[in-house]
UniProtKB/TrEMBL annotation:
Highest taxon above the source species: Bacteria
Protein name (database record): Cysteine desulfurase
Keyword Cell cycle among record annotations: no
Reaction catalyzed: (sulfur carrier)-H + L-cysteine = (sulfur carrier)-SH + L-alanine
Length: 387
C-alpha cells in the first residue's frame, strides 16, 4: 500500500535529505561538547555551531551575535516574551500587546505575565484573519513595552503586516517580537534596519530537524535586554543554559542555507499547486476558504466544507491523506480553534474548518487525487448525514 499523501507541512515539514545527511554526519563525527574549547574536538564542534550561526544570519540578514540557539520556537517565544518583561517592568512599561490568534506558546506567556503584574491587550482580527493597524496604534500607550504579532498563522496561513506593525510599535518606544516560524521557508526576511527586535524560528517548520530553533535578539538601538528563563552553565552568553545540540544546530543552519536556494521556486511551484487544488475542490464541493486569500502563505489553505465535520473526514481519509483539523481534540470533547473563533465566532464555519499544507515534495499528480478523495469522502459523509 502506498504511503498517504502528506498535506500537514504546517505542523511539521519533512527534513530535507541533504540536511539529514548533515545531522547524521555531525552526530557521528563531532560528538564533543562545543563548550569544551580547551581541546581540539570541542573546538571543532564549536566551529560547526559558528558555521550554522553564520548560515542563519546570512539568510535573515542579521549579525551572528544576535542569534541565540534554542530547542525550537516555543522556547524562543518564551525567552523573548518572559525574558524581556522584567526589564520592561522596571522601565515603567508593563503594558503588553499581542493578538488573539497567536500560537499557544505565545498566548501562554502573556497569560503567565498577567499574573506577574503585566497588563495585556489582545487584538482581535477581521474575518480575513488580519489585525487592524489602526487598532494597534490606538491601544499603544507610553507604558507599552512589547508588541508580539506572528508573521504567518499556523492554521490559516494568513500573513500579518509585521513590518508596518513593528514600525508603529517602535515609534511608540515599544519592542516588537514576531513568531516567524511558519513563514521561515516561504517568506523572505531582512532584519537589517527593520523594526523587528525579536524573532523566533524553528527547524521543523523549514525542512530542518525537530528540537532545535533560534531567537533573533537585536543588539542595535534599541538593544534588547533579556533575562534567562532557564539556568545552568551559562551557554549562549548566559541566555540559554544547556549543552548545545550540535547536530541539530548544524542541521538548522544547513536548512536555512537551503531556503535561499529554494524559496523562489517553492513560492511559485507550491503556490500553483495549492491554487490548483482549491479550484478542483470547488468544482465538486461547497467549500469556503478561510482567511485573506491575497495575503497568505503559498502552501496553506484553511477550508470549511458545508455540512462536513473535519474529524469524520480525517477518520475516513486517514490511510490516504495526512492533514489537520483546525481544532484541538480532547478525550471528552472537541474545542473549536481559537484562531477560527476569533475570525468567525462560534459558528459551523469555525468548528468545521480544517487545514491543508503543501510542501516541497508535493507532486502535481497528488492534486487531482486529493481532490477526488475529498470529493468522495465528503459525499459519503453528507449522504450519511441526510439518511
Amino acid at each position: 500500500m502506498s504511503a498517504p499523501i502528506y498535506l500537514d507541512h504546517n505542523a511539521s515539514t519533512p527534513i530535507d535529505p541533504d540536511v539529514l545527511e548533515t545531522v547524521v554526519r555531525v552526530s557521528r563525527d563531532s560528538y564533543a561538547n562545543p563548550s569544551s574549547v580547551e581541546h581540539s574536538q570541542g573546538s571543532a564542534a564549536a566551529r560547526i555551531v559558528d558555521t550554522a550561526r553564520a548560515q542563519i544570519a546570512a539568510q535573515i540578514n542579521c549579525k551572528e551575535t544576535e542569534l541565540v540557539f534554542t530547542a525550537g520556537s516555543t522556547e524562543a517565544n518564551n525567552l523573548a516574551i518572559l525574558g524581556a518583561f522584567s526589564t520592561l517592568q522596571e522601565a515603567g512599561r508593563p503594558h503588553l500587546i499581542t493578538t488573539k490568534i497567536e500560537h499557544p506558546s505565545v498566548l501562554a506567556c502573556f497569560d503567565h505575565l498577567e499574573g506577574q503584574g503585566a497588563r495585556v491587550t489582545r487584538l482581535g482580527v477581521n474575518e480575513g484573519g488580519q489585525i487592524s493597524l489602526d487598532e494597534l496604534a490606538e491601544v499603544l500607550t507610553d507604558e507599552t513595552g512589547l508588541v508580539s504579532i506572528m508573521a504567518a498563522n499556523n492554521e490559516t496561513g494568513v500573513l500579518q503586516p509585521i513590518l508596518q506593525a513593528g514600525q508603529i510599535a517602535e515609534n511608540a518606544g515599544a519592542l516588537f517580537h514576531t513568531d516567524f516560524s511558519q513563514a521561515s521557508a516561504l517568506v523572505p526576511l531582512d532584519l537589517k534596519n527593520s523594526p523587528i527586535h525579536l524573532a523566533s524560528f524553528s527547524g521543523h517548520k523549514a525542512y530542518g530537524p525537530k528540537g532545535v530553533g533560534a531567537l533573533y535578539r537585536s543588539i542595535r538601538k534599541p538593544r534588547v535586554n533579556l533575562a534567562p528563563v532557564m539556568f545552568g552553565g551559562g551557554q549562549e552568553k548566559g541566555l540559554r543554559a544547556g549543552t548545545l545540540n550540535t547536530p541539530g544546530i548544524a542541521g538548522l543552519g544547513h536548512a536555512f542555507e537551503l531556503i535561499s536556494k529554494h524559496i523562489k521556486r517553492d513560492r511559485e511551484w507550491i503556490g500553483a499547486l495549492r491554487d490548483q487544488l482549491e479550484r478542483e475542490l470547488k468544482e465538486t464541493l461547497q467549500v469556503q476558504i478561510n482567511g485573506n486569500t491575497q495575503a497568505r502563505l503559498p502552501n496553506t489553505m484553511s477550508i470549511t466544507i458545508n455540512g462536513v465535520v473535519p474529524q469524520a473526514l480525517m477518520q475516513k481519509l486517514r490511510n490516504d491523506i495526512c492533514f489537520s483539523a483546525s481544532s484541538a481534540c480532547a478525550t471528552e470533547h472537541v474545542e473549536t480553534s481559537h484562531v477560527l473563533l476569533a475570525m468567525f465566532g462560534d459558528t459551523p464555519r469555525a468548528s468545521n474548518a480544517f487545514r491543508l499544507g503543501l510542501g516541497r515534495q508535493t507532486r502535481r499528480a497528488d492534486i487531482s487525487q486529493v481532490a477526488d478523495l475529498f470529493g468522495q469522502a465528503a459525499a459519503e459523509l453528507l449522504l450519511l448525514r441526510s439518511a
